[in-house]
User: Fold these one by one.
Assistant:
Number 1:
Amino acid sequence: MSDSISLYFNDVLVNPTLPSYMSENEYIASNLHTQDFSVALIGIPDKNNSANTVRNHLYTLFGNFTTIKLRDLGNLKKGKSEKEMALALEHVVQELAEKSIPCIVFGGEQWLTTAIFKGITEVQPNVGVCFIDSKIDVGDMQESSCSHSFITQLATHHTLDNIDIVGAQQYYYTERQRQYIREHKGDITRLSEARKDIFKLEPILRNADLISIDMSAVRLSDAPAAKFPCSNGFTGEEVCQLARFAGYADKTKALVISAWDCINDHQHHTSRLVAETIWHFLDGVDKREQESPNEDNPIYTKLVVQSDIHDDGIIFYHNTQTDRWWIEIPTLSGLRIYPCHTNDYQALCNNEIPAIWLRYLYK
């Protein structure tokens, strides 16, 4: 990491108590790197040191990953204003993205996702975003630092490729907000639909460069310190599974976990869950396959489905080793390959129109 980036951070000041039943070199605390790292941790400061509380639990988890080297960059300095901190975060994420180093940003408010998005856009022309949230943060306010309206600015950014909101609860958003997302390259998966089969969400996360988790997406009993606590939501196990999907996806440049406060966290219940969510993302990154579907690669099977919905055959790619699927869809910018689910292939075989086809066709 360059010296200019180091200036943005305060050193980590935590002293975790490592369990004595295993040697210390088995834990993440003993497996952090300062050089040649491949994944970065970035803490966002708040008055109650929520990020450091998470570290105390994260560092005591086993860290014997086989392919990644983890570095904790520390906590971002607050600066003189929120805007100054956002600009610093944007710069840091840009440099990491240029080096193909995924990062995990944890703590603070979800509006900082906008700064991370802008950092990634400096490196690539099109960016896909997935929000795991109970609500839709679209409002009348235009300030990017407002946690309840920041998506309004992000959705109109010229580099936005697609936007997904997963886990939204209908009584927390209006029809106008839902329609706004649909009109801005977006789609919404309600909580009830998402929880029917968590594995159907994997292609959505595989198509995102940036994934942002608001802890309000997790039910109150599993995340009592969420700043917008909800009686319903994903379970702790489910949010960890979603984080692993995100880590396993080759495209993912950043994972954001935000919107909790450890002052309301009895027995560090939420902080422990955030630490475990980070661990599952790391485990996913550790097992990445660097998939690039094409018919010349022997691990992919190319399948052409003839269907009444399109004059030409519709092409699918299936990785026989990971059992992941992709579909080729004509868009305004030409043919593009999107991640999909085996159910999309089966639907077309039955001459039914899968939702992914309608979402991207000629858009």
Number 2:
Amino acid sequence: MQTVRKRPRSNHLDLAQRILEAVRRGGFRSGDRLPEQQIATLCSVSRTPVRAALQLLADQGVVHREKTSGFTLAVDPSGATGAVSELPPAEESRLAESILRDRAARRLDDTVTASALSRRYQTDKRTVLKSLKILEAENWIEKAPGQSWLFQAAQDGPEAAAESYDFRLMLEPAALTAPGFKADEAQATALRLGMEALLASPESGFDVREFQRLDMAFHAMIAQGAANRFVGQSLEDHLRLRRLPGMLHGVNVFRLKQSTREHLAILDQIEAGQFEAAADLMRLHLRLSRSQRPQAASRGAPVLPATAQAIRGRR
């Protein structure tokens, strides 16, 4: 009989991500030991949750566990940034995704209660409340008077989607060109590897969920690299609204692959320090995404690499 794998707790998933960040900042290399007490000190937690988080990373092959010597780093930490996203989600995170999915499909009203959600999803009220807290932290829902929770307005219609693109056209190029922009090098490398692997996949096997993960991570990198804290925070807050399930409905694989090439072209300019060129390419990328008309892109030829070359030629 097959053993059902227990879902990890959300705090262990969060801590696993923090451990990856801590070992990357600390200059750890593949093969280095990861003493539980040292990791606990770096992450300001006790040893007990550290052991559970390290085991999650061991399940993903990021660290290696020896019975006698404990945990050692099995990979370069800069290349393991997506490892936690591949872990099975915590129960409350899975439920939060189900609530968002049903909200997007109009199966839930503007106002809900924890008791009603508990009955609907046949789960305990404690898990429901944790899920609602996750959604509240991401500005999807807010506590209303009494026992009710109120969903925030989302960009789930053509008018709202157009306003979203207008907002991003104002701020994302500005984030790139304002003095002090700096992209995280390890994150940029991991994104490039992920996007190149996605482009290498056949159209029939194109992973839309992986595209969405990389797309979100790419635009999050832009927001996090902004030197102006208000621009960066506004973009990060807005980015959460784009996580609504079904946002890519109706967009064909050709456009998603083209969008990935555009991301890579923008990344080329960022890594070269050509932020004005990166901003020009970002504007074109957002306008093409808004129109969702891939036929406008030179009959299927990747548009942005050529555009990038033309921009470089003018400088």
Number 3:
Amino acid sequence: MSDKMQIDGIEVTFSEGETVLEVAQRHQKEIPTLCYDPRLEPFGGCRLCIVEVEGARNPMASCTTKATSGMIVRTATGPIETYRKTLLEMVISENREVDVHPLSGYASGELADLRDKYAINEAKITGTKSGTTKDDDNPFILRDYDLCISCYRCVRVCAEQEGDHAINVMNRGFRTQITTEFDGLLKDSACTFCGQCIQTCPTGALADKKALRAVDEVVDATLDKTRTICPYCGVGCSVDVLTKDKKIVGIHPAMDGPANQGALCVKGQFAYDFVQHPDRLKAPLIRGEDGELHEAAWEDALDKAAEGFRKVDSEHGRYSVYGIASGRAPSEAAYLMQKFIRVGFGTNYIDNCSRA
């Protein structure tokens, strides 16, 4: 049964347990956030989502405030908007820079977007910069803590979504820092390099080191994004492949993917170099009488393969043929592979390397 409340003078319905922010978002009311990720437990750290609640003494964080029947909420009054702008000015004043490349991560432009929305002059408030960048020689994750705003989304996604607890927080106040156990390297921690911390970071403090290799190629920041399914295993994670001039430059997990909801493993997130690798075969090879492999035409290669299959089948029977499909091949290729074995040889001797 739905209850009713008012948001900005409009009566809306909500379900028990919903927060004010969830109700507002569902009714297309824009409330700014920085520490909020819908996949995580509400944190209430950034305070940008505060709203006025009639009868309440002070503004309340909408992400942690439960909706109640008869509640009257105002989301964008003059004092509230001034408060938000001041908060953003203070956050931005501690950071080395706000503009980061979109290849940094899925949410990396959130702080810059809010700066633009509130027309903030970055030079208005100046002072000491917080955060200390960590030199880390891992090939996947850039740890640029000069850009950190202590929203803890990275720490929370690692704990709540992955269950790894590979990163945490040390120190307090201005000296707060994201770290691993014993302040070491990611490769020496419990990190599985899933990349979730990268994709939830709203400032680029944690960034996709592999994708950023292509920054010079994406000067105008125009990227093509193609939705597809990761082929590496049977889960069926949805991903958005980022390309520039038909070259893959990065992978974003699909936050609305029904199977993964923004999560990926290290292979789904980072293992795409093989697509454009210079050593990748561009033509079929046939072993000649000299024992060496030589490039051949597709027709000749297919005839040679068919001849081999027929010979093995006639000499040893259909159960002597076993097919293993590759997780690096398209899903259509996997389908054809199993069809070839099941229909062509009448057996179920087919597997996929991704299943393991």
